[in-house]
Design brief:
The protein is an alpha/beta fold. The protein contains 7 helices and 7 strands. Strands 3-2-1-4-5-7-6 form a 7-stranded mixed β-sheet, with helices on both faces.
Length: about 220
């Protein structure tokens, strides 16, 4: 298969790209590879921290935040969809699968990255995105399937339901050389500052090292 792209992320929300993969993206981009991002929602159901009022204003603000974040990362290829935030599970599954499948076929990435089966934190949009991306990946002929990565971390979830679907990382990238730019990119998502605090509090080691689980066919 002729590859056009090194890494393609498919995630539900603006900011899902930055915490666990921005250093990896910057590494690949600096090496001259092309990378891309598919964001399924506009994030209109997220936190506002009093910076805006209403879902529509939040969606517009998060679009600006995401553009600023991607500018810091240096990522040029981005597709924004408008599936309803926090309601992905209620949507017909086929359109989500088709978006993921179409992106894989058009961009022909070496690697596709998305959330693991437990959504990392159990978020329904994360889980639904995992299911859609995995179904799209499964539907491709073997010769056209990219490598499939999930976000993963070494800390076992305390929640028993999440623990049953926990996957230990088997891919590790040291990204300390990009730590300043990574923190800058994270800080672009101002409306989601509490998510930033939670991530750094729970997973401080993942600022300088990004970890993933690679699926074996």
């Amino acid at each position: 298969m002729l590859l056009n792209m090194k890494l393609l992320l498919i995630v539900p929300h603006p900011d899902d790209e930055v915490y666990g993969a921005s250093g990896t993206l910057m590494t690949y981009l600096q090496e001259g590879h092309e990378c891309g991002l598919v964001t399924l929602t506009r994030g209109e159901a997220g936190r506002t921290l009093g910076l805006c009022e209403g879902p529509e204003e939040l969606a517009r603000m998060r679009q600006v935040e995401l553009a600023a974040c991607l500018d810091v990362i240096g990522l040029k290829v981005h597709e924004q969809h408008q599936f309803p935030d926090k309601h992905l599970r209620e949507q017909p599954r086929e359109p989500l699968i088709e978006v993921a499948r179409d992106a894989m076929l058009r961009h022909r990435p070496e690697i596709v990255l998305t959330f693991p089966p437990n959504g990392s934190n159990g978020h329904p949009d994360h889980v639904t995105t995992h299911e859609a991306v995995k179904a799209a990946w499964d539907s491709l002929p073997e010769g056209q399937r990219p490598r499939l990565w999930y976000y993963a971390n070494d800390s076992a979830p305390e929640n028993e339901e999440l623990l049953t679907l926990w996957l230990r990382p088997n891919v590790r990238h040291e990204v300390g050389a990009f730590m300043t730019r990574k923190l800058h990119a994270i800080a672009c998502h101002r409306t989601q500052a509490l998510s930033t605090v939670d991530f750094i509090r729970k997973f401080p080691d993942r600022i300088a090292q990004e970890t993933f689980y690679e699926v074996s066919e």
